[in-house]
Fold this sequence. Notes:
The protein is α+β, with helices and mostly antiparallel strands. It is built from nine helices and eight strands. The strands form two sheets. The protein has a five-stranded antiparallel beta sheet. Strands 7-6-8 form a three-stranded antiparallel beta sheet.
Amino acid sequence: MSGFSTDGIVLKRIEYGDNDLIVTFFTTAMGRVSVIAKNAKKSVKRFAGALEPFSVMNLECTWPRRKNALPLLNAVDLSYPFAKIRTHTVKTGYACYWLELINSSIEEGKKQGELYELLFFVLQALDADTMDKEILSLLFQIRFMNLSGLCPDLTSCGTCSTPLDGMAQHRIIFDFAQGCLVCDRCAKGAVRHGITVTKGTLKQLSWINNTDLRRADRIRFSPCAVREGERLLESFIPCHLGREVNSLTFLRRIREAG
Ligand SMILES: [Zn+2]
């Protein structure tokens, strides 16, 4: 019976029957793949507790004999358990939010190397504390949107194309419905569903969107820019997706409590 082997990040797991788990992975070879782990709830030894959200591992599977059945997970070799995320409530909140965005947007069986690299980068930095979690989330969100083809242009007015530096005002309107910046001249008279963001924050967001990931830790955001970036991206993404993002509601709640 033929099978496949690939590296993958656990996106989610659900219980199936009394003994089995259905685990959805974001894999390097095939994008999103759901597999069935037989007896995973009973036989702790076989998967050694590896099948937890955001764990990274190599997995070996067998293709099913029946059409429409899920591949069978035979063995895993855990590479990064990211235990420091799991034991920290706010870090877990951020990681769950990123996982939900990925899980809801990637296609089954379609390889997405850059997106995989991005998710792996932010999880690793979150686990190792090499960057602030708030900044990592801005980095993830803006690059996620870019790679998903949703990225708004944060460098010029979406109506008249005036560049950011050519706008007289300090705070610029970001229009949620149109998904773009609107300069004061174009905004006149119209009621808009959006927020205003300072030029400095917009430039920093563009920088983390375009820079090499390995240089991303050089960015410094002021607390005010972090809050503005958070407000912009965490409002725009659900608005653009057209639905609530459950894990974002959870993240906001624990962030406020902490
Ligand atoms: Zn304009």
